[in-house]
Amino acid sequence: MSRRSRAICAPCSRVNMAFHRAFFALSGNQVLVDAIHEYERRTHAIRSVSIVFPQYLQKARAEHHQMIDALLRSDREHLIQLCREHLVPSRDAYLDAHHQRSLAAAAYGSTASNGDIE
């Protein structure tokens, strides 16, 4: 990611993290809050890449508003569904990055092995 892209997405990333912390703190469930914080910490680098795309930001913003509306209406089932769906893009980006890294490591390993054989 370029320096310019990092500069553009850094404030968005901070606001996004602050939203999730505040939102899940409302649950009163410290285990959930801690789990969300840990997930955030582990996936920050990958989520930061996707946040540079305007369509992702618009979708995330709309989902955040829907989550707030469901919370205000005390619509627990819809809120659960929204939260689950909201995690999918980050999960998929994380899994894709992990898969790509595994492929690169395997290719590097086979190249190194081939070089050792000669």
TrEMBL record:
InterPro entries: GntR_C, TF_FadR/GntR_C. Residues 13-87 form the GntR C-terminal domain. Keywords: DNA-binding, Transcription, Transcription regulation. One of its GO terms (molecular function) is DNA binding. This is GntR C-terminal domain-containing protein. The lineage of its organism: Bacteria, Pseudomonadati, Pseudomonadota, Betaproteobacteria, Burkholderiales.
